[in-house]
Amino acid sequence: MSELSKNKIKWIQSLRQKKHRDEEGLFILEGEKMVLEALEQRPDLIHTVVALSNYSHRLLGADTDIITATDDQLAQVSELHTPNKLLAVLNKPESGRFVEKGLRLVLCDVQDPGNLGTILRTADWFGLTEVICSRNTVDCFNEKALQSSMGSILRVNVHYTDLKSFLVNRTDTIFAADMVGENIYTASNLREGYLLMGNEGKGIPSDLDGFIHRRISIPKFGSAESLNVGVATGVILSEFARRMSGH
User: How crowded is the C-beta side of 245, counted as CA atoms within 13 Å?
Assistant: First the structure.
């Protein structure tokens, strides 16, 4: 074990900026639950673990170097209101090739990191392993997105790509969430393919209209103008999962 130096503090602080995360291919994961999950499920991604001095003895069996820190030092590198016991720097996972089967989620210009994290967590809950994002979608390694994902970033592959170039080559059905689409609860033949969700305020841009095969909607029973994109994604994925599982 070693102690957290001033240079290490500056280095970790620099990774709060997307520019530096992209340059180094690294990101920060905070909190006891998520760091322990990463150590157990994706030890191959672990670069550095920082632990409070009075906690580090619990990690003696971990196959990685542990850096110990004081409460004040951990507060300097943490973005949590109440810094936790553990922080880890991880290598970004390789996104690999696109999966060509099952239900895959496509996000167009989702801007709020909390929404993105919630969507990743929801996708993970329903067994999706693939989320494709437009280049203008918020960074999935943003601290707020990671906290909202509750560790799902370790299990869900996230790709950033040009959606036009991606969608033009798809042969499976492309579904799109749309306020005026088919009622999802009465629509027939909901099956594997791509589910396209749009921006929080603008929805799906018109230049993607030509790629959409079917538009689906969540029926409205009350007076709210719209649903949060994270909530809407959860409702739609739930119905797809129910249909595809035969229940």
Answer: 9
Q: Domain spanning 2-91: which CATH class is it, in words?
A: alpha beta
Q: Are strands 103-107 and 193-197 parallel, antiparallel or unpaired?
A: parallel
pLDDT at 48 over 60: yes
The percent of residues in the chain predicted with pLDDT above 90, rounded, is 74
DSSP state of 199: B
Domain boundaries of the chain, sorted by first residue: 2-91, 103-244
What fold is seen in the domain 103-244? Alpha/beta knot (3.40.1280)
The span from the CA of 1 to the CA of 16, in Å, is 24
Burial bucket for residue 111 (CB in 10 Å: 0-12, 13-18, 19+) = middle
Strands (E), 95-173: 103-107, 130-134, 157-161
Residues 205 and 199: their CA atoms lie apart, in Å, by 9
pTM of the model: 0.91
Residue with tokens 């070693």: 2
Residues belonging to the chain: 247
Handedness of CA 224, 225, 228, 234 (dihedral sign): positive
List, edge to edge, every strand of the sheet that includes 46-52.
2-3, 66-69, 46-52, 86-91, 26-30
Q: Label residue 196 left, alpha or beta by phi (over 0 means left) and psi (-120 to 50 means alpha).
A: beta
pLDDT of residue 226: 87
